[in-house]
Amino acid sequence: MTNKIEVSWKGNMLFESVAPEGSVLIDADEAVGGQGKGLRPKALMLTSLAGCTSMDVISLLKKMRAEVADFKVEVIANLTDEHPKFYDKVHVVYYFYGSDFKKDKIEKSVKLSVERYCGVMEMFRKFSEITTEIKYIEQ
Questions:
Q1: How far apart are CA 101 and CA 92, in angstroms?
Q2: Nearest partner of 109 among 58, 41, 51, judged by Cα
Q3: 18-42 in b/e burial notation, b at 16+ Cβ within 10 A?
Q4: InterPro entries this protein is in (predicted)?
Q5: What is the dihedral of CA 96, 134, 44, 83, to 10 degrees?
Q6: Does the pTM of the predicted model rise above 0.70?
Q7: How far apart, in whole angstroms, are the C-alpha atoms of residue 53 and residue 112?
Q8: Thinking of the domain 41-138, which architecture would CATH place it in?
Q9: How is the chain split into domains, by residue range?
Q10: Which residue, 59, 73, 110, 114, has fewest beta-carbon neighbours within 10 Å?
């Protein structure tokens, strides 16, 4: 399967990325001519990672009948100092909100996403050391 996107210049350092499913604006830091009108390319990479694993986890929890009240993923990444700068360490934190958690199913869903299903996670493994953590917030 081949995927295709197009990125078009919108002036200064602003670009629009268009895929069949929608579009997103990409912009640079103000220090290099950006205007803060879009996500930066490296932030998009972290967004892709969080989005991919989040979709896996929610889908798996639904199948396992282990829904939670709310859920979010936070990605904290260390950017190298030398050019080309890349994320060499990435920590993914899964936050589950609710009560009476089915922790065994939650942990299994995260493990399946991390180890088997999330293709973006697999791509990150090629250049980053990835760690994960699960946090439960009782409501």
A1: 20
A2: 58
A3: eeeeeeeebbbeeeeebeebbeeee
A4: KH_dom-like_a/b, OsmC/Ohr_fam, OsmC/Ohrsf
A5: 160
A6: yes
A7: 9
A8: 2-Layer Sandwich (3.30)
A9: 1-39, 41-138
A10: 59
Helices 41-63/103-112 angle, 10° precision: 130
Question: What's the token pair of residue 131?
Answer: 């760690």
Distance CA 66, CA 106 (A): 7
Whole-number average pLDDT of the chain: 97
The token duo for 16 is 């629009």
Q: Which residue has the tokens 């895929």?
A: 19
Residue 116 Cα to chain centre, angstroms: 16
pLDDT digits (tens, 9 = 90+) for 84-138: 999 999 999 999 999 999 999 999 999 999 999 999 999 999 999 999 999 999 9
